[in-house]
Amino acid sequence: MRGETRNAPMDATQKIALGSIVVGVAVLALKSVAYLLTGSVALYSDAAESVVNVAAAIGAFVAVRVSATPPDRNHPYGHHKAEYVSAVVEGALIIVAAGAILNEAWGAFQNPRTFELTPAGLAASLAASGVNAGWCLLLLRRGRALRSPALVADGKHLLSDVVSSVGVLVGIAAALFFRQPWLDPAIACVVAVNVLWSGAQLVRSSVGGLMDEAAHDDTVALIKAVIAANAEGAIEAHDLRTRQAGRLTFVDFHLVVSGDMSVTEAHDICDRVERALHAEDADIIVTIHVEPDSKAKHAGIVVL
């Protein structure tokens, strides 16, 4: 089973990634207007995070473009891990944004500022949150369907942004209602902590992909079941290994057959198993090592 790059899914991924840049710029503009109309440090923190959103969206677009590049001499397994690199960079940018927010909040603590929640500023902030929420749901749904770590990472980041934005508006309203200006930078600090947490989680999951984490338990169970049901003529399969690389799942295992079986017969069994696995998931890449029955371990996958 050869790792051919399918054009349709990658085309869709690239279009969504490009859309994220457009949405990010629009949301940044709305949040900047909200900050300028209110003078709120908390809304500044919200806008600062959107700067990162735009940078991260650009990085994600570049990553999916690179990951769509077919395998070459120097990268025979393809370029799919480029998306994990993008996600790590996005996590680092999130952490930088959190530092900028904390710095601004500290300045506001030292020199309290007056601010007001004008109708126009409120409308701009709500509009930005609405756009972000809608795009976030699309990114998460389509990113998982297309197995794009870059799109899923972008979606998770935007989800954190939406939660932060709602919390900012509630906090600003409370600060004005109770006439406590210090609540404004305090809210900004809470936003920064939330941003740091999302950045750390993003980096952790992306590093896992770069370190060749195994496929999810459900995926491994499905692979074992397909092998067991379609390797008729073989004795057993053992030493199954899996790893994820972007949307691809690499699978390799040893298939034990009778010592007097011909090469053609063994090859036919391998082809049948590969077709069955490919039917379950077109993005599975399989490598099978055929062994004689003297190598049987009497463990692993029993052929049905």
Would you kindly provide a written description of the structure presented here, covering whatever features stand out?
- By secondary structure, this protein is of the alpha+beta class.
- The protein folds into 2 domains: 7-210, Cation efflux protein transmembrane domain (Alpha-lytic protease prodomain-like, Up-down Bundle), CATH 1.20.1510; 217-302, 2-Layer Sandwich (Alpha-Beta Plaits), CATH 3.30.70.
- It contains 8 helices and 4 strands.
- It has helices at residues 7-38, 41-67, 82-110, 119-145, 149-177, 183-210, 217-230, 263-280, and strands at residues 236-245, 248-257, 284-292, 301-302.
- Strands 3-2-1-4 form a 4-stranded mixed β-sheet, with helices on one face.
- A hairpin with a 2-residue loop joins strand 1 and strand 2.
- Helix 2 (41-67) runs antiparallel to helix 5, helix 2 (41-67) packs parallel to helix 6 (183-210) and helix 7 (217-230) packs across helix 8.
- The longest helix is centred in the first third of the chain and has 32 residues, at 7-38.
